[in-house]
Amino acid sequence: MKIGLYFGSFNPIHTGHLIIANYVAYNTDLDKVWLVVSPQNPLKPSSTLLNEHHRFHLAELAVEGASRLRASNIEFSLPRPSYTIDTLTYLTEKFPTQEFAIIMGSDSFQNLPRWKNYEQLIKHYPIYVYKRPGHEVTDTYGARVEILEAPLLDISSTSIRQWIQEGKSIRYLVPDNVAAYILENNYYK
Ligand SMILES: Nc1ncnc2c1ncn2[C@@H]1O[C@H](COP(=O)(O)OP(=O)(O)OP(=O)(O)O)[C@@H](O)[C@H]1O
Ligand SMILES: O=C(O)c1ccc[n+]([C@@H]2O[C@H](COP(=O)([O-])O)[C@@H](O)[C@H]2O)c1
Q: What InterPro entries does the annotation carry (predicted)?
C-alpha cells in the first residue's frame, strides 16, 4: 500500500488541510493519506501551540468517516523537534511492507534545502507537491516530484486562532465537530 504523509502542526487542523488530504487521496496513486501531527515543527516557535494530544484529537475528529484519511500521532514518541527524515526512517523500519511518500505545498518545497538531511529524504521518498500561489516550483533538487493542482482555500491556523480570540465564528473553516470541540474546551482563548 502507498501511504502519503502530510505533516503539520495542525494547530488547529482546518478545511484547507482536509481539502488537500482528500484531493491527494483520490487523485494520485496513493491509497491513503496520514495527517501526521508534529508535536513541534523544527522551524516554528512553540509558544502558541495547543497541547499535542488535543491537536491530535481535533485531527481525529476531522477525519471521522473519511475512509482514506487517518490522523497519526507517530511523532509523539520520537525525539523533538520533529525532523521528517527521522520520522520516515522510523516508519520505514516499523512498516517494511508499506511505501511512504511525502505531501507538501510548494511553499514548503521551496524551503526543503533547509530541512535536516534533505538529500536523504529526496533520495528515498517521492514527494507530492501541491501548488500554492506565489510559490512556483522552479527547482526540484533532483527529487522524484509529482506536481498537483489541488483546490486551495486561503486560510491558516494562525487566522483561525486569531478569530477565536476575537470571539468570531470559525464555522465552515473547520469541520463542525472540530469547531464544537474547540468551543466546548475553550481552546485558543
Ligand atoms: N489553506 C491551506 N491550503 C493548503 N495548504 C495549507 C493551508 N494551510 C496550511 N497549509 C500547509 O499545510 C501544512 C501544515 O500546515 P500547518 O499545520 O503548518 O498549518 P498552517 O495553517 O500553515 O499553520 P500556522 O498558521 O499556525 O502557521 C504546511 O505545509 C502548510 O504550508
Ligand atoms: O525535517 C525538517 O527539518 C523539517 C523542517 C520543517 C518542517 N518539517 C515538517 O514539515 C511540516 C510542515 O511544516 P511547515 O513549516 O510547512 O508548516 C512540519 O510539521 C514538520 O513535520 C520538517
A: Cyt_trans-like, NadD/NMNAT, Rossmann-like_a/b/a_fold
Q: If you measure from the C-alpha of residue 73 to the centroid of ligand 1, how many angstroms do you get, rounded to a whole number?
A: 17
In a domain, 189, yes or no: no
At 40 the pLDDT is 87
DSSP characters over 57-108: HHHHHHTTT-TTEEEE-GGGGSPSS--HHHHHHHHHHH-TTSEEEEEEEHHH
Q: What is the pLDDT of residue 171?
A: 97
Domain harbouring 80, CATH code: 3.40.50.620
* Cell matching residue 54: 488535543
Q: How far apart are CA 69 and CA 72, in angstroms?
A: 10
pLDDT profile of the chain (189 residues), mean per 10: 97 98 98 96 81 97 98 96 95 98 97 96 98 94 97 96 97 98 97
ipTM of the complex: 0.96
Host domain of residue 144: 2-151
Number of structural domains in the chain: 1
CB of residue 46 inside a 6 A radius of ligand 2 = no
Kindly report the protein residue whose alpha carbon is nearest to atom 12 of ligand 2.
Answer: 8
